[in-house]
Write a structure and sequence with these properties.
This protein has 159 residues and is an all-alpha fold. Helices cover 81% and strands 0% of the residues. The protein is globular, with a radius of gyration of 18 Å.
């Protein structure tokens, strides 16, 4: 459900840095900002998938409880997004870092919600759930394509 919003953040970021700070996607600073944002998303989302394992192995929690605790932590990440624009008045690095943290929190939360099914249900239910998630991903992609096409038809621009 929320993937479209986060994809918007990631694909909109280069235009944001260009419009707000004058750093185009082909400038050195623009590339550094975008690389930093994507690197934060990638590295921390992998760590976010590992966090429940720490709760289970180190603190002896039930796997489901460990995932839920990790997901609660990641659910608080979007609050950081409120500070991206105000802190952006000081430096373009703040929005890059904060949007990267937002993306990492979302990806970590998603990884854990998808894995929760494996902790709760057996093999047959997991196969059905996997098919359902592929269908949802396809619907999300079609929705984003539709919005892009609608934007182009109305504004003669994709954004």
């Amino acid at each position: 459900m929320t993937d479209g919003v986060w994809w918007f953040f990631l694909f909109w970021a280069p235009a944001y840095f260009s419009d707000q700070y004058g750093y185009t996607s082909d400038s050195g600073m623009g590339i550094a900002l975008i690389f930093t944002l994507y690197a934060i998303c990638t590295i921390l989302s992998i760590g976010g998938g590992y966090l429940p394992k720490i709760f289970v192995e180190k603190y002896g929690m039930n796997p489901y409880a460990g995932r839920m605790r990790a997901m609660l932590i990641f659910a608080c990440f979007p609050v950081l997004g409120l500070f991206a624009q105000p802190l952006g008045t000081y430096s373009a690095w703040w929005p890059a870092i904060l949007i990267g943290l937002l993306g990492a929190g979302h990806q970590s939360w998603s990884a854990n919600i998808f894995s929760t099914v494996g902790n709760i249900f057996g093999n047959d239910e997991r196969i059905i759930y996997g098919c359902h998630m592929r269908q949802q991903t396809a619907h999300c992609g079609l929705f984003v394509a539709f919005i892009g096409r609608l934007s182009y038809m109305v504004c003669k621009s994709y954004l």
